[in-house]
Amino acid sequence: MPVHLYGQPAQLKPLREMAARHHLWLIEDAAQAHLAEYEGKRCGSIGDVACFSFYPGKNLGAYGDAGAVTSNDETLLAKIRRLRDHGSKTKYEHEVFGYGERIDSLQAAILGAKLPRLEAWTEARRRHARAYNELLAGADVVTPYEAPNVRHVYHLYVIRVPRRDTMFGHLKSKGIDAGIHYPLPVHRQPAYLKQGYGEISLPVTEQVAVEVISLPMYPELTLEQIEYVAHTVREAL
Fold first, then answer.
1. Same domain, 52 and 158
2. What are phi and psi of 94, to 5 degrees?
3. Structural domain for 62, as ranges
């Protein structure tokens, strides 16, 4: 289950080959990857199944909880459709146990109104990311990497900095709504620690978790705002 983290597509080709070799499903976590592309193909169309989130903060967001599953396998989609509707494909007939996971009409209408604007919003995010990259060039920060064979859609613009907590506090003091995505790695979550797997060490993950900080990123940002954020980051450094 590769995650297209922050809007950057995972390297799907080797994972696809590995999945085929071992007879595994390839499930794309595309919650942050609306309109992202890998080698010219849209994320969500490459694996056996993909899952999108339309949580309000996503690039394409509803006004409440919502999501979607995509697949090119009609048999699999038919099964998913039954599962989302209490195991039913005909009203009052339930073939299997299922769930109540249908998107409600209000959220669907909102998403339908927003969808035609998603491409323009995505390009705005990409412009903002380029501006951040230029303004932070040469500073003691690691800016986001965009692989040459992908289209990154910058759900988040995440940098890595030394003394992250000091940086975070300074940005907040200047009125900048920065975030941390994500402060606690999965293998350190209490739910996993209770499973009795023992102490697991993932040193790269653990290092990144104490360095990442998300700068403001949304289509309506102005260049003046981006310059202010970048100046404040340099000021803190």
1. no
2. -115, 110
3. 5-115
Please report the pLDDT score of residue 176 as a whole number: 98
Is the separation of the CB atoms in 16 and 47 below 8 Å?
A: yes
Torsion of CA 84, 42, 145, 129, to 10 degrees: -90
Q: Are residues 182 and 142 in the same domain?
A: yes
* Contact predicate 45/69, CB 8 Å: no
| Other Cβ atoms closer than 10 A to 16 | 16
Same-domain status, 91 and 121: no
| Size (the chain), residues | 237
Residue 129, both tokens: 């990311």
- In sequence order, the 6+-apart residues with CB closer than 8 A to the CB of 27 are 1, 47, 48, 49, 50, 51
Averaged pLDDT, groups of 10, the chain, 237 residues long: 97 96 97 98 96 98 96 94 94 94 95 98 98 97 96 98 97 97 92 84 95 98 98 97
CA–CA gap between residue 192 and residue 1 (Å, rounded): 18
